[in-house]
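Entry type: protein chain
Record version: 2
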Amino acid sequence: MPSPRQINIGSNNRLPARRWRRRRAPGPTRAAIYRVPVGAGSEWEGEAGNWLRWARTEGHDAYWAYRRPFFETIVPAPGARTVEVGCGEGRVSRDLSARGHRTVGIDLSPTLLRLARDADPDGTYLLADGSALPLADASCDIVVAYNSLMDIADMDAAVAEASRVLVPGGRLCVCVTHPMSNTGRFDTSEADASFVVTETYFGRRRFEGVEARDGLTMTFRGWSYPLEDYARAFERAGLLIELVREPLPDATAPHLLRWRRVPLFLHLRAVRS
């Protein structure tokens, strides 16, 4: 049994827990249009059942069409430890493990963590806030935040925490909904539909929306940030951006063809100085 000041994250490794700190997020503004998922907290706890069906229906959502360029281009070779912030039901952590990473998944939803552990009994999954990680300084080589930074109320604190737990030269690997995609919507579902801008690109905005397709329904909530906000958070955390990619979907599903004309996701990799 680990002592109260330790969290067991492996058979031979115990890292001192970091004391949690609570931060008050700025109040939300008018909701923007949703684009994409993965996160933590009570909002995701309430959607856990819907998210399980959504995420584990292979080929259903955009993850299946965008994961290859993320894992092949953004995520470096495995080191001693890879931490996923906002792991949800665990599919990204499982994919990382399949690629040789020794992973620790972090999330605030107890139900999603239970589902992650059920699917990956040998994995390590911790209930924690992405802006107050229960891990020691310089204790991991890679931090992955796949569609989770926009779900964390204090994005700056989450980036700072990722930097704190990285070793010098460690990498933060990020996928977020592309800031441009949150400014509007396509006017039809056709592949050649026009993208109509209805919101300002600048500023932090709350988004919330429901997507229903093929008998599955999911409510997504979070915050939209312009690229500069992410870049400034990285700067403040001592992280140098070394890769920026705007991937195209590698699937031909009709609901994704439109996103070969406007970027749906933004992939970033930054190195800790």
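Comment: The two ends are 35 Å apart (CA to CA).
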